[in-house]
Amino acid sequence: MPIYVKDRQIVVPGEAIGEQGKLKIEGHVFRIGKKYYSKVLGVVTINEDTKVLRVIPLKGKYFPVEGHTVIGKIIDVGFTSWDVDINSPYTAVLPVSEVTSKPVTISRTDLSKILDVGDLILAKIVSFDLNKDPVLTIKESKLGKIPRGVLVEIPPQKIPRIIGKKGSMISMIKEMLGVELIVGQNGRIVIVGEDPYKVEIAVLTIRKIESEAHTTGLTDRIKKFIEERLRT
Hints:
alpha+beta, 4 helices
């Protein structure tokens, strides 16, 4: 039975995906008669090993862009690279050549001693197209492993509201709470601070901005919100 789409193809709601046959069709799809259609704006993934075609929604997920700074989570360690979750339908790749300029003897080096599963990194996307996974680097200044902090995830589209005009919102949060905010354009924020209560306030503040991002006068309300919690 035919499949109408290719791996990594972006589909729109109502677009025909194919008819179930050799591949099992899963995810955000619906069937009319023998044909399957996408329910969402999403990306197609085809796993030839498991014989599964899946539609993954793009809403709420990050779509990679070259040059963006992202917060990634190491999910697998290979011989020459790491697989990195960047809150996207696409798994990113961090080659060892984009981690260190020093020569590495692959057969003698356990890459997990450099970065291990579960580690968070601040990285930059150096290349991406629909034919291959995003490639990351952490060799540039201020990039690299994030050793500690509390991870918060929000829709990537709301990151500009966290930052504010010319960085006004994020600067206010940092100054009022004495915390550091590491922000990825993929919807992830790491809060670093010495005072657990102030870190907790920072988390609540980010959640409030997330829920009220569409409203006006947000900066003044956030300032009042923080002031009230600092008094308690």
